[in-house]
Structure formats: structure tokens, C-alpha cells
Amino acid sequence: MFDKNFEDARFSLNICNACRYCENICPVFKAIELRRTFSDNDIIYLANLCHDCRGCYYACQYAPPHTFDINIPKIFGTLRLETYKNYRNSKFSKDIVDKPHLFSIATFIVSFLFYTISSIINTGKLSLMGIVDQNDSFYSILPENFLIITMFIPFAISLTIYIKNLIDYCDYIGIKKGDFLKLFNHIRSLKSLVLLEFLDGGGYGCNYPGEEYSFSRRIYHQFVLFGFKITFISTLIAAFMSHILNISPPYTFTSLPVIFGSIGGALLLLGLTGLLYLRTKMDRIPYSENVSSMDINFIIILLLSVLTGFLVLLFRSTTFMPILLIIHLSIVITFFITLPFSKLQHAVFRYVSIYKFFSEINK
Hints:
The protein has helices spanning 2-19, 27-33, 40-49, 55-59, 72-86, 91-98, 100-123, 144-172, 183-195, 216-243, 256-281, 292-314, 321-338, 345-361. The chain is mainly α. It is elongated.
């Protein structure tokens, strides 16, 4: 199946390289023009450089129902999924990439039981409702060091896997170790990644969710990106207040950790909800249905993390705080554990591909 996908991609790319009508649409076609033949490594690089803006599909005179059936966004979407699976070592882990929702549900259940039993042991009470006094700290349910350790271990493992994937992928697409240390290319790649400039369709926006040009996908995507960053800043501020200033939580609604966390959470909610809405409207012909489970699973877990985080904040002085806290923690740790199998992998592969692109055009 994987070989057929490569054959289909190679057939399409050879036609694109002869036609060149799409050469100004996105960097993928500029990278295509630098080649006369396409190895499997080249095809995987191009697939991960593609941002799925779909401009080439709607501009192509050979797109379906033409006999050539050129559908670059769909074939690249399939190959990106194969990339993610190819970086998993066992059949079990590859199956998780295919069916992430089952693994996520199982992980959440185990995590919920783990934190529930831990809280019962810590508090000495069997009930999860009202087992602490109002305005008590979250740490009266589960100790701070216990929470740090249980969250840090899966995060560190996931981060290690991401770094290994980055190194292996650099080698696969032909970036030598010394070539990955060029500061200018990293600055240019980071700028592109943060601004999502390859989703601007040359200034007109993407052909998403339909054929019309629109910036909606880029905007929602950036809401998610900046929501991530601002909530991370909130966590850093909270850690500074707790460990350097010795000001323990819960923090007031006007404190910096809560303000930053609320802004970041709101941006995430807007972005994730918007991306889900666009999915209901999108043209599914230039889309690989194989990636649907991974896309939706990632959005749902992140959305539930934010929603339960807000619920913990709003009901932290009520008898519902312990159960809401445990549900929120279980979802967050599910997010960390499933990271190596999630859609977020694309950030690593895409960043390296963007870096290679700027390295090629700056030679």
C-alpha cells in the first residue's frame, strides 16, 4: 500500500513538474522545480512541507474527474500519516496511530482510576465530593510533588521521542548534522512556522474549507498556537510565584497565572472550535480520510483539557472541586501520553521540512 502511494505521488509530481502552473502557489512546487526525479525520501519531504492549503487542487486542470486524477493534497495527507506510522517501532504503536481514540479512552480511564485511588490514599476519604474545605489548595487533594512527577514523566518521554524523530527525519530527508545548525535558516523557519505564512495562499488565503479563498483556517490555527504559548507562560508564572515567591495557589481571578491561563484557554477554545466547524464544511475530495481519526482525536482531547480547566477554575471553591480536578488531570496526562501518536507530530516533521526548503533555496 505504501509503495502504491509512492507510485501515485511520483506519477503526479512528474506531471506537476512538466506543467508548473502551480509554481507560485506554495513552497512545495518551488521544491519540486529543483528536482528532475523524485526518490521516496524526496516525496516524504514534500508531503511534510505541504500545508494542505489545497490551492494546487483547485487550480489543477488534471484534478478529478480528469483521467490523470491529480490530487496532491490527498496523496500527501496519506503519506504524512504513513510517515508518522513509520516512526513507530511496533505494530501496537502503529495501530495507535490508526485508532488513537481507543488508546486515548483507555488511557483516560486508567489515569482517572490512578488519580482517584491516589486522592483517596492522600485524603483518607472515599468520597470525591466535598472532601476538603472551601478555598483549600488543589494540593490538599493530591500533593504538589506527586503531581509534578506524574505529569513530568510522560511529558519527558514524549519530548524525547519527538527529539529522536527530529534527528531521524533529518537523516531521512538528507539534512546532515552540520547543516542543521545554520542560525539564519532556523530564524526564517521559526518565523514561517509561527506566522503560518504558507497558509496565506500567496496573500489570498487557503482554498479551505471550500474552493473560495479564506484566511479562517490560518486564523483558527494561530489561535491554537498562541493559546498554547500563553497557557505555557501562565504555568511558568505560577511556578515562579509558588517556588520563588512562596505564594501558594489557589490564585485569585486577578492574578497573573489566572489571567494568562484564561486568555490562553479562551484562544484555544476559539481556535479548536473553529477548526472543528471548518471540518464540517470542508470539501472532502482533496482529503485523506485515513487521517481523520488522528485529527479529531487531537482536537477533542485538547478541547476537553481546556474546558475542564475552566470548570476547575470556576468551581474550585465548591464541593465539586476534587472530582473536577481529577477529571482535568486525567485528561491532561492523557494528552501528554498520547503526544507521540497525536497530530502534534506534524509540527516536528513540518519544521524540519521548512528548514530544508529554506536551506535549498538559499544555496
